[in-house]
Model the fold of this input.
Amino acid sequence: MMLSSVQHMSIAKSLFSALRSVEALPSISEIYPDISIDDAYKISLAFLNLRISKNNEKVIGKKIGVTSKAVQDMLGVFQPDFGFLTDAMAVRDGRVNVNRLISPRAEAEIAFKLNADLKGPGITGEDVLAATEYVQPCFEIVDSRILDWKIKIQDTVADNASCGVFILGDKKANPNDLDMASLEVVVKKNGGEISRGMGSSVQGSPENAVAWLANKLGEYGIPFLAGEIILSGSLVPLEPVVKGDKMNMVIPNLGSCEVEFI
Done:
């Protein structure tokens, strides 16, 4: 049995309060063991609407997460999650205030900037490439509002795919000029290499992950819009970060991205 609309809103308000107070909640899926992914998505929409109405945030894109085996194994969540990006999540100076976050973890991704609308079902990776103006390296700093990251897929979908903030790199490239699957990212933390990952680790290639997201959101009547930023999922395991950490990622033929935690 699905949760009621009153329960959806109550959980969304709790998540919004956790966002504002920077204090985590108990696992939603433990409190509501019958919660479905459809329930979680309705909670996510209500959570988003609170951010829009109370914080004056604007939607600027979408994100997919938990796409690679490395991240799935780390979190114990074995299917992708999905959520929305707002302007308040975009960090433009590369400096992330950890006091705004609960339990941040950094992940290296490829971001897609669209120049055409896309709406599932039936979207392919080729459709995504045709609708993409450019791609960029990106750090997403994920941050679960659920205590100790004790999450199931329903928890992270409800929690807007555990999105915290994101930082875009300094270079842009036409994805049609790249072999997206063979792109390799090298991630360093405080000067030392901590991980490497390939584009192929994200559902075979990042554009395939973006196509999956377009089709999944299409089930709910939500399109991708020209001008939006789409985050395609981490190529490497998530890395916990604290104040004072500095991270850098380099993707040959694409560019780099840097973030400092203050």
Notes: The radius of gyration is 17 Å. The helical segments are 5-21, 28-31, 37-55, 69-75, 125-130, 153-158, 206-218.
